[in-house]
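Reopening this ticket.

The earlier resolution said the output was attached, but the attachment link was broken on my side. Pasting everything inline this time so it's all in one place.
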Amino acid sequence: MDASWLPNHEAELADVATHQLEVLDGAHYLQWTQAPAMAKTITAFIAAHVTD
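Inline output:
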């Protein structure tokens, strides 16, 4: 990972009230290589922050 990646993405989210930045190992196609981890993280985030 490029050393500036994380600080740049944290800065992009600085003004977003509800967010979560999750860093996963892998290259560009994380939706293929990390699908179960992404699904688990997204599901937990939605359950914690979205109400009916």
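Reporter confirms the inline version is readable. The chain is about 50% helix and 0% strand. The two ends are 37 Å apart (CA to CA).
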